């Protein structure tokens, strides 16, 4: 559905707010064209970074080609630069900031594995890669190397850390050896 058709259908449905969870916190935003409201073409990446201050989610290509902006939506990896915020009603969004333990602050095992394996250089692509890896491990606790490569095939790293990344994901797999 185009943005225009989506906008008309939301207006017909009388929707003037969008409510969803981000890292367990309730987000409730008005929909409209005023500055304090979420516009119909505002992406989830923009909302996360510019309204909610969650700048761990990075944006590079802004058109679905690089994977840098990946977050979890109901446990699945999605590209936040290709997701409209007005379509997030009722969803549970997790960003890189939401991976650490809410009480102890301990890093998620996948984050720790990236550190242990040295799976980044500049780190710009790393949040997106970690979120794609997290989605894989939520679905498959013992992926093969091939499955890891498949799951991360939409994430690009200019620093060529791919070998270390694959090692880190395999090391963090709860069902792995
Ligand atoms: S910034 Fe979203 S895919 Fe590149
Ligand atoms: S670590 Fe630099 S782009 Fe991936």
Question: Mind sketching the topology for me?
Answer:
Elements: H1 3-12, E1 17-22, E2 25-30, H2 44-51, E3 70-73, E4 76-79, E5 92-94, H3 109-117, H4 126-139, H5 145-151, H6 162-172
Parallel strand pairs: 1-5
Antiparallel strand pairs: 1-2, 3-4, 3-5
The chain binds FE2/S2 (inorganic) cluster (2 copies).
One FE2/S2 (inorganic) cluster (FES) binds next to loops.
Account of the 3D structure:
Helices cover 33% and strands 13% of the residues. The chain has 177 residues and is an alpha+beta fold. The chain folds into 2 domains: 96 residues, Roll (Ubiquitin-like (UB roll)); 64 residues, DNA polymerase, domain 1. It has a 5-stranded mixed β-sheet, covered by helices on one side. Helix 3 crosses helix 6. The structure holds FE2/S2 (inorganic) cluster (2 copies). One FE2/S2 (inorganic) cluster binds next to loops.
């Amino acid at each position: 559905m185009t943005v225009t058709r989506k906008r008309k259908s939301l207006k017909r449905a009388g929707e003037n707010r969008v409510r969803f969870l981000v890292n367990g916190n309730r987000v409730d935003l008005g929909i409209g064209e005023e500055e304090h409201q979420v516009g119909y073409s505002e992406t989830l990446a923009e909302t996360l970074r510019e309204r909610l201050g969650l700048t761990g989610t990075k944006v590079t290509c802004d058109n679905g080609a690089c994977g840098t902006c990946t977050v979890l939506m109901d446990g699945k990896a999605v590209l936040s630069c290709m997701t409209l915020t007005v379509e997030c009603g009722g969803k549970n969004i997790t960003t890189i900031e939401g991976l650490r333990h809410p009480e102890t602050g301990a890093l998620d095992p996948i984050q720790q594995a990236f550190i242990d394996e040295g799976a980044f250089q500049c780190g710009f692509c790393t949040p997106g890669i970690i979120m794609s890896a997290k989605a894989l491990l939520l679905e498959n606790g013992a992926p093969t190397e091939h499955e890891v490569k498949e799951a991360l095939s939409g994430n690009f790293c200019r620093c060529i850390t791919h070998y270390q990344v694959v090692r880190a994901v395999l090391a963090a797999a709860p069902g792995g050896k």
